[in-house]
Design brief:
- Helices cover 76% and strands 0% of the residues.
- It is an all-alpha fold.
- The longest helix is centred in the middle third of the chain and has 37 residues, at 38-74.
- It is elongated and about 55 Å long.
- The chain starts with a helix and ends in a 14-residue tail after the last helix.
- It comes from Nicotiana tabacum (Common tobacco).
- This is 11 kDa late embryogenesis abundant protein-like.
């Protein structure tokens, strides 16, 4: 089960990814409108696709990081200890 903090972090990562994807689309449209050169229009589309893929990758990495961080919090006894030297 995901912790509330992990869920909130995942929602934030998804929102950030959505914003970045939207920015990429808007920038592509602006670049396509300002040029008549078909090559530059194609380059703008390629750039948009690259930015969208990068945003999706960042979102997935953030979710994996959140899951790993949450996993460590759920099992504090793994690989840890109190540092006092007593084993109880």
């Amino acid at each position: 089960m995901q912790s509330v903090k992990e869920k909130a972090s995942n929602v934030a990562a998804s929102a950030k990814s959505g914003v970045e994807k939207t920015k990429a689309v808007v920038q592509e449209k602006a670049e396509r409108m300002t040029t008549r050169d078909p090559l530059k229009k194609e380059m703008a589309t390629d750039k948009k696709e690259d930015r969208k893929a990068a945003a999706e990758l960042e979102k997935r990495e953030a979710k994996e990081h959140n899951a790993a961080a949450g996993h460590g919090v759920q099992h504090p006894h793994v690989g840890g200890g109190t540092g006092t030297g007593s084993t109880f």
